[in-house]
Amino acid sequence: MSSSIAIASDHAGVELKSTLANYAVELGFFVTDLGTNSAQSVDYPDYADAMAAWLSKNEGALGVLICGSGVGISIAANRHRHVRAALCHNGLGARLARQHNDANVLCLGARLVGVDVAKDAMKEFLATPFEGGRHAKRVEKLG
C-alpha cells in the first residue's frame, strides 16, 4: 500500500478534512490536500474530479473525499471508471469497502459522522488491504 494519500472536500467538509489530514500524517502518511480550504461555497464535483485526476497519476493510492452528506461527492467520484468510491458511516463499513470492494476512495459525510467515527473509518480504510479471492471477479466487473 502506498504511504501517500489525497484528501479533498467541499465547503461543508473543510473542517473535517483538516482534522483527518492531520490524523493521516500522525498515522505516517504523506497527504496531498486537493482543497477546498475555506467555508466559501464550492461545487463538490470539482473536488471529486481532482481526486480522480490525482488517482490516475498515483496508481494504487487511496483517497478520502468529504461533503455534507458524502452522497454527492461519492456519486461524482464514481463517474470515473478507475475510481471505486465508498460512502461509509463507520470503521466496519470502511474495512469491508476495502476488503470486499477494493474501494480506493473513502467518502464521508461531515454532517452525519462525528470526528472520532470519521477517524476510525479512515484508519480502517487505510490499514485494510483488498482480500481478493472470491471478491476479485466481482470487482473486475466494475471496471
Question: Could you explain the architecture of this structure?
Answer:
There is one protein chain. This protein has about 140 residues and is α/β, with parallel strands linked by helices. It has a single domain, classed as Sugar-phosphate isomerase, RpiB/LacA/LacB (Ribose 5-phosphate Isomerase B, Chain: A), CATH 3.40.1400.10. It has a five-stranded parallel beta sheet, sandwiched between helices. The radius of gyration is 14 Å and the shape is globular. The protein starts with a strand and ends with a helix. The model has no long low-confidence stretch (mean pLDDT about 95).
Helix-strand layout with pairing:
Layout: E1 4-9, H1 14-26, E2 30-33, H2 44-57, E3 62-67, H3 71-77, E4 85-87, H4 91-101, E5 105-109, H5 115-127, H6 136-142
Parallel strand pairs: 1-2, 1-3, 3-5, 4-5
Helix pairs in contact: 1-5, 2-3, 4-5
Query: SSE order, as H and E?
Result: EHEHEHEHEHH
What distance lies between the first and last C-alpha atoms, to the nearest angstrom? 20 Å
Average pLDDT value? 96
Shape: globular
Brief rundown of the structure:
This protein is α/β, with parallel strands linked by helices and about 140 residues long. Helices cover about 45% and strands about 15% of the residues.
Keywords, separated by commas or semicolons:
alpha/beta, 143 residues, 45% helix, 6 helices, Ribose 5-phosphate Isomerase B, Chain: A, 5 strands, 5-stranded parallel β-sheet
